[in-house]
Every structure is written in C-alpha cells, then in structure tokens.
Write a structure and sequence with these properties.
The chain is an alpha/beta fold and about 350 residues long. The chain is built from 13 helices and twelve strands. It has helices at about 5-15, 20-25, 35-45, 50-60, 75-90, 105-110, 110-115, 130-140, 165-175, 195-210, 225-235, 250-265, 295-315, and strands at about 65-70, 95-100, 120-125, 145, 155-160, 180-185, 215-220, 245, 275-280, 290-295, 320-325, 325-330. The strands form two sheets. It has a six-stranded parallel beta sheet with strand order 2-1-3-4-5-11. It is elongated, with a radius of gyration of 24 Å. The N and C termini lie far apart (about 65 Å).
C-alpha cells in the first residue's frame, strides 16, 4: 500500500500543497505545528513513507525536474540531456536523470520516479504511454516530450523539430541534383513506438512523390553505425545500386559512407550522393564532411526550458512547439566541397 500512496494523495485529502506535505517531514522547515500534525497523522493512517532523498531534495531546491531518457549514449540525446541539466541548474532547479530502455519500462518506473516529488517531467527518446501521462496528470505534474514529433492523440506538451519537412528537403535536394535511383535507410528497426525517423521517412517519400520519383531500395536500420554498414552492403551488393541515399540519422550515414568506400569502392559524391540527419558533431569531422539535415539544438533546448518554466507557472496552458530544420551541404553531395 505504501508504495502506491504519494504526497499528492495526502495533499488532496487535506487540501494542502504537495510542497507542504513534503515540508511536514522536515523538522527544520517552517510549517504550522497543527498542519504538520495533521499531515503526519494522515501519513501514518494511510501508510505513506517519503524517501530520504525526496526530503533532502525538497529542503534544498524549490523544484525538481525529472528527465526520463532512452539510450543516453545516443549523440543527439546526450547533447540534449547535458545541456538541459546545465540550463535547469542555472534556473536554480534540480534535474534528476532516469535512463529507461523503452516507453513500457518508463511507465512501470513512474511510481519510483514520482517518489522524488518532481515539479515537472521531461521525456526524450520515446513516446510515453498514456498511462505515464495519466499518472503525471493525476498528480498535477506537468510533462513535456522532446523531439517525438507532434504528439497527436495524447494530451502531452512537446518541443520538436519539423522532421517531416527535413525528410522532404532531403528528397527535394537529391531529385534536383539529378539522382535517378534513390534509396533510404530508416531507423524503425527495434522501435516499438512512434519515432521521429518515421516522420523523416514519410516526408522523404512525399518529397519523392512530389518530384515524380520513387525509392528503388530501402533498409530498416536502428540508428546505429552498424545498420549503416549493413545497408551499404545490401545496396552496393545488388545490381543497379542507388545514386542517391538518405539516412534517417548521421550515425547510419557514417557507417554507410565508410562501408561503401572500403568494401565496395564507392565514394560520395562521385559515385552516389549521401544525406544524413541531425548534424551531430562527428558529421563535420574531416573523415565524413557529411551533408545532413540539421536540427537547431539551441532552439530545442531554449524552447524546452521556457516550456517547463511556463508549465510550472501555468500548467493549464499547453506547450506545443515545432522548430524548423536546415539542410547543410558538405562533401557527400555534388556541387559542394571537393
């Protein structure tokens, strides 16, 4: 029973705030003796036991922000989390990071995360299940999803890049460059919920259709360097290989470029043109100089911090931000650097 009871439950029963409930368990906090007595009595009756961590946190910080992330080794998410931690600390709040393998596990760990009494929850790398959003809502904890596209059908706040437009821009570039046999590498494999790669590929296919073209080959990758390697082996191991390739992220594009050159003697842009997505730091390394669709990470971070600030003040006003992307031309597309 005690594992299911939260500070929010006590706050609702006694018509006080969650922070008041938390302060009642801190002997050094300023709170009316009568209110403290009522809260402690209620907690005893229903079996509520706050964690030591939550009491210490509430003593030092006005707000705790729970950052729930999938696969923090991913370069894009690592950048987002590192910069968010820095920005939230500058705001005087305490960011706590929880890594989860997928949306289902995020939901099962929700109770434990809520035990830290977060004022808001930020999620990256997965589309949260409705049950997780419901738990946040029931506790009056605002939540915000980063970079999962527009969360249609879910009452969630979001900050995202325009992945559909990014995929379309890649298709438009390759078709205007005269590519006749165009292929793509998606990032769908192993993803059990909505992924921004889906919007990227949808936009890419729509761009091809608009230009009167179709994809001649496809490979379902998983955003890893290794899946780019496998895609290159598939494409260049077959007759009539593609002369234009779009990869759903830069890691796959880098694996594709290395394998095309080392195993098949195919070089970009002389033999084919290659476009990645994200513009991670390695994409601009001398070995790659990868043409890519760039997200404006400064804008993503700024909009996320501003969104959380707004939700803490007014949780009823939704935060729904879609940011533009830009195609950066480098050495893997023709007409650019030698």
């Amino acid at each position: 029973m005690s594992e299911r009871i939260t500070a929010h439950d006590i706050a609702e029963r006694l018509s006080v705030s969650r922070s008041t409930v938390s302060r009642a368990f801190d002997p050094n906090s300023r709170i009316s003796p009568d209110v403290r007595k009522r809260i402690l009595k209620m907690a005893h009756e229903i079996g509520y036991r706050p964690t030591v961590a939550s009491r210490l946190v509430m003593r030092e910080y006005p707000h705790v922000i729970a950052l729930i992330v999938r696969d923090i080794t991913n370069p894009v998410r690592a950048t987002i989390m590192t910069r968010l931690i820095r920005e939230f600390e500058r705001e005087g709040t305490l960011p706590l990071v929880f890594q989860v393998p997928n949306a289902r596990i995020a939901s099962t760990r929700a109770e434990a995360i809520m035990g830290y009494l977060p004022s808001a929850v930020v999620m990256s790398g997965f589309m949260p299940q409705a049950s997780l959003l419901t738990q946040c809502s029931q506790r009056s904890i605002p939540s915000l999803v980063i970079n999962r596209g527009q969360t249609v059908g879910l009452a969630a706040n979001y900050v995202t890049s325009d992945h559909y437009a990014g995929g379309m821009a890649a298709a438009q570039f390759l078709t205007k460059a005269g590519c006749q046999r165009i292929a793509f590498v998606s990032g769908h494999s192993g993803v059990s919920n909505a992924d921004p790669s889906e919007a990227r590929i949808e936009g890419f296919l729509a761009g091809l259709d608009e230009a009167g073209s179709v994809a001649v080959a496809a490979y379902e990758g998983d955003h890893s360097y290794e899946s780019g390697v496998k895609a290159a082996d598939k494409f260049f191991g077959a007759p009539n290989p593609p002369d234009g390739v779009f990869c759903g992220n830069d890691m796959m594009a880098m694996g594709f470029k290395d394998t095309a050159r080392e195993s098949h003697g195919m070089n970009a842009p002389q033999d084919y043109q290659l476009i990645g997505y994200d513009d991670i730091e390695m994409a601009n390394w001398t070995a790659y100089r990868l043409s890519t669709v760039a997200q404006n990470m400064d804008a993503v971070i700024e909009a996320t911090v501003q969104g959380i600030r707004q939700l803490l003040q007014d949780p009823e006003t939704p935060v729904r931000v879609t940011l533009p992307v830009d195609l950066i031309e480098r050495s893997t597309t023709s007409g650019n650097e030698p």
